[in-house]
Amino acid sequence: MPNQTTAGGFPLMNCVKFLDTSYAWGPVKLASVKLGAMQASNIPIQVIADPAYPAAAPCAGGGVAITSAIGGAANSFGANGILGLGLFQEDCGATCAVNGGGVYFGCTTAACTATTANPTSTSTQIKNPVVKFASDFNGLMIDLPSVPGALAASVTGSIYFGVGTQSNNDASSFTPLTVSPFTGYVTTRLPGRLAMAQSFLDTGSTALFFDDPTLSTCAAPNTWAYCPSSPKEYTNVIISGRNGKTKSVNSTVASSTFVNGTYVYQNQAGSSGSSNSFGWGLPFFFGRKVFIGIEGFNFTVGGQVLGGPLYAL
User: What is the span of the domain harbouring residue 71?
Assistant: First the structure.
């Protein structure tokens, strides 16, 4: 797969950081991505943990690589790849086209420099493959079942490509929540709390991430997670979009159970480290349908025609 390069001619590297301080690091290369019957041809992707480019220092920031965190080799990661279910056509857009955004770096096999002096054009940035499909390319819908009990070895759900393009992805009866066009933020308000304006929905976060000083944390080394003595229910939590539409949701946080192996957790949560942020991670998606409308397209949601980026709940 051919390397993408910076404006200065260096191989282009990509850094993805997660809320638990782990990260994914690797070169940007061109590939054709096939998902079910759909294909996006010749798009930039990140090759995680390519041994030819081990110098991850600009990305690490004290965290642990997602591959080494669970066994030390890419083949222990538990997946052949990750599809970023995002709102945007590229992962960093105009910001990285100017200065790299702390996301893109120009590297040799021995050393790396931030691309501040070598801007990363949108054409070379990692691409959302959905927008390059021949049809059903304006977004997607995530449909995951509830987790039976506190945790399960696995659950089986579906991703439907397109929003309002087929009978199985009709969003006309859902509530549209438009988001910030640059950050993808919505606002979350817990009862009795100030609004958290830097909130987001993210299947890639393994837990809900928000600050609640009333919840006790787990024992080391899992102090990032909450371990309350009994489950705590949050009712009538309001998620609102920039368009003024709101959606009331309920959620429960239970004591995290850490066992060997890979499991799905229904009620896991941890601290976000910010009083202004609520990360609606994977547990939020269990038992509900969530639409993601990608920037640059229009959608019929809740009786309105709205432009993306947006969510529909």
Answer: 12-132
Stated pTM of the model:
0.89
Sequence-separated contacts (24+) of 245-254 with Cβ below 8 Å: 245/175, 245/176, 245/177, 245/178, 245/302, 246/175, 246/177, 247/175, 247/177, 247/313, 249/284, 249/313, 251/208, 251/283, 251/284, 253/208, 253/212, 253/215, 253/226, 253/228, 254/150, 254/228
Within 178-240, residue ranges assigned H as helices are: none
Residues 43 and 61: their CA atoms lie apart, in Å, by: 28
Claim to verify: residue 148 and residue 122 sit in the same structural domain: no
- Phi and psi (nearest 5°) for 58? -65, -20
Q: Where are the alpha helices (DSSP H) in 101-149?
A: none
Q: Answer for the pair 211, 275: CB distance below 8 angstroms, yes or no.
A: yes
Higher pLDDT, 25 or 110: 25
- Does residue 65 contact residue 48 with C-beta atoms inside 8 Å? no
